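FW: tagging you since you asked about this chain on Friday. Here's the raw sequence from the shared folder, copied in full. Didn't touch anything.
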Amino acid sequence: MKILIYGYGNPGRQDDGLGNAFVNRIREWTAIEGLYDFYFDSNYQLNIEDADAISDKDLVIFADASEEEIEDFCLSKVDGTSGLTFTTHAASPGYIVKLCEELFNKKPLVLLLHIKGFKWEFQEGISEEAQSNLNAALVYMKKRLLHPEKFATKDLKGC
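HL: got it, structure written out here
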């Protein structure tokens, strides 16, 4: 099973870097655990080229900071109809999935990990509150990523 973990956000805007931090921590963990078939990427935002990057994967987990009213983190399924937005500067996970389906006729299981952030100033470093949420998300995801073939959308910590 090929798995892509893709974090996005701006690490220079405090908690907006949660997705990138998640990727870094999961990458370290998979190396320690000796897990294979994991691929990693991070960027400031999703781009239309990412449709190609997910087209040969079985499971894709996008990770991003959230300003929404969630407890600490949540995980939701993304399909070609969810949150379809595209501007010349950014694409939503739903738009990337839609492009992947249309251009490559592929439908990997795509999930979006929303991690609650608190501070968004032009400054590096994740806030203490957001770090706690990141740690909770890591514990949750590590358990599931040990057996990714058992990932079921009905068992997600929904938003």
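FW: The mean pLDDT is 93.
HL: agreed, and The chain has one domain: 3-155.
FW: great, closing this out.
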